[in-house]
Amino acid sequence: MNKNYEILEFHKILDMLANLSANEITREKVKSIVPTSDLADARAEMEKTNDALQLSIQFGAPPFHAFQDMRMSLRRAKSGARLSLKDLLEIATVLRQVQALSDWYDRCSGIDSSLDDLFGRLAPVPFLLEKLDRSILSEEEIADAASPALADIRRKIGRSRQKLRDTLDNMMRRQDVQECLQDSRVTLRDGRFVLPVRAEHRGKIPGLVHDTSATGQTLFIEPIAVVDANNDIRLLEIQEAEEIERIIAALCEECGTWSDAIIQDHEVCAELNLYFAKARLAEQMHAFAPILSDDGVIALKKARHPLIPYRKAVPISFTLGEPYRALIITGPNTGGKTVALKTCGLLTLMAMSGMLIPAAEGSRISVFRHVLADIGDTQSIEQNLSTFSAHMRSVIEILDQADDSSLVLLDELGSGTDPVEGAALAETIIERLKDNGAKLMVSTHYQELKLYATQQPDVENASCEFDLETLRPTYRLILGSPGKSNAFAISEGLGLPRDLIQKAEALVSEENVRFEQAVSQLEETRKTLERERSDMQQALEQAKSDAQALREERSRMEKDKEAIMEQARLEAMRIVETTKAQSNEMLTELDQLRKEKERAAFAEDVIRAKGDVKRGFRKLYETANPLTESADSDYVLPRELQIGDTVLMADTQQKAIVAGKPDKSGMVFLQMGAMRTKAPIGKLRLVAGVEEKKKSQQKQKQCTSAGRVSAQAARRGTMELDIRGCTCDEGVYQMDAFLDRAVISHVGTVTIIHGKGTGLLRKAIHKRLKQLKYVKSFRLGTFGEGEDGVTIVSLE
């Protein structure tokens, strides 16, 4: 592997990827991965990995089997060679993998992805897979179902062996034979059934001796009576072996015929496994696809080192290449400078290899021709190289290779020698790399490089944050601010005597002290600004949350307003309809009075009519002004409320139907037309008695003026009655009067419009219709007639 890639530990990423691969071919492909500097290739690989991740999220990861590399065996089968049963089983595993991937992809139909071409190249051979599965049981055994001939031969062998055993068992039951046997068990020798006979009884059982025991005391004799049967079994076994060879040869020939297609499937499966292994690695790292370019710009957001556990890694954010080409990172030892360098280099190599990176969405990575790194201690005793010499040798190689398409990462540049000379060398090396067009990140402790970064427009300072209170690094990367090494603070925290630290501080030059003080002030200002920014961010989030809550409240109020307006509209319609009906009644009454003005009781009728008009208007006024005080505050219900009772609400003077029993808190559910509400039982007045009295008075009035009602009914006969919004008692009363007039007017069919609502009014209407003798039949309306909201009545 490239030395620079090893320094950045790219091989460890490949090892992680190889461990997620299912087969050896894929692992070989992983080992051969080389980051590409071609933008189109890198984007294509990245797209395939990202599509594999999206498909896995949406449909679940496809199944991958640990199949062996069977390409050579398939080529041998194509040339006519015989394969072992183990090879055929491995080929079946490859075919099973192809079939599983093809079936999985069928579930993803309709989803366009960059993997369509690979999945489209899969060519399953289901009939060959079925034949191999049916024919082979294990690496040593062929199944009976491999061919009808094999099954027939094995059945014959089974029957012959059973018949031979029965013959031997019968022979062993004889007394003269039992005396000769060493053991009462039939055994096998050289594939033939024999009896264990004692040596001294050799002549008593005629037959062929096949073997003797180790002591010579037992002879294994094949009785003459079963020699032919054993010969028959032997012939059948030969036929079985020949049939098995024929079956294996046919299977090998079949595999050879399809070898090219299976070899291609083999490679496609391995390639698909590679992309889905990359997707699985991305899932483990919580990785996303970065924006790829070739302009040398890197912009990482909340990037984590991929080899540090996700929950332990501290995310860092920085940019490189625009507007500055070099980043000088300073700060204490073990503060995270080296990790920042490796994170930048390693994520760049991963993106160039088509892998997703552990950074937030919107991160940006550029492909480079060279990724060059000098990180860590590379001293060598064998080569007689000191730390400084080893670093300088690496830097010289980097200077020779670096160009305008290079990312250079230098750790502790110029260290290991005199600080003044080392700082001067570091500055000139950075200048040369900039002149070559390279983008570079450099970590250092030199004050001179901190000053250099503040003076150059294309160089930026960065620091690894250190908490002086806990004397521990936070590992956060802060852009725009140089960092202190904090050597004195760290040493004191480790237990170095205070007097030694004070002497050391006195030896620091005044210029360095002033610079460190300026850096400290700058750091304090940065922390203050960061706290203020955090507070402002929290205030902004709170303001957004409050604004969202206000919008939701306003939306709710708008909905409530619409509901109230709708209720008011329905109430207004009800009032208008009620007023219209009462006005029609008054007009009818006045018309009748006009016709009877010559009667003696005319004056009394006029006085009564005026009283009815005043009462009617007073009732309308009360209806239009529902929020009136109840005059009978000491009212007590005459009995317990029942479901279906008509009650009057004392505070609104509106009628409602009791729709539920009172609960423990004294609240009762009420039905007011289409609206369901809840009211305290103390504010309800039972009006069933009042309604019955009014009904009785109206009936009496009807009797006294039967003549004029009859005449008027004949004149005002109609086909429809609308009682929507009425209580059950009111509706039934109006329907009785309406049907009476309809009968007098000889109307055959009428329509009662009662609405759907809770269904209480409809039930009361139907109950009353069943009691009326002049009602021939009634039914609910059909489509176009009003459906369940109307009842069609046929009269006699």
Provide key terms for this protein.
flat, single chain, MutS, DNA mismatch repair protein, Chain A, domain 3, 6-stranded mixed β-sheet, 796 residues, 23 strands, Rossmann fold, alpha/beta, 5 domains, 5-stranded antiparallel β-sheet
Report on this model:
The chain is an alpha/beta fold and 796 residues long. It has five domains: 151 residues, MutS, DNA mismatch repair protein, Chain A, domain 3 (Orthogonal Bundle); 106 residues, MutS, DNA mismatch repair protein, Chain A, domain 3 (Orthogonal Bundle); 217 residues, 3-Layer(aba) Sandwich (Rossmann fold), CATH 3.40.50; 110 residues, SH3 type barrels; 86 residues, Ribosomal Protein S8, Chain: A, domain 1 (2-Layer Sandwich). Helix content is 53%, strand content 15%. Strands 10-11-12-8-13-14 form a six-stranded mixed sheet, with helices on both faces. Strands 18-17-16-15-19 form a five-stranded antiparallel sheet. A hairpin with a 5-residue loop joins β3 and β4. α5 crosses α11, α5 runs antiparallel to α12 and α22 crosses α23. About 4% of the residues have low confidence.
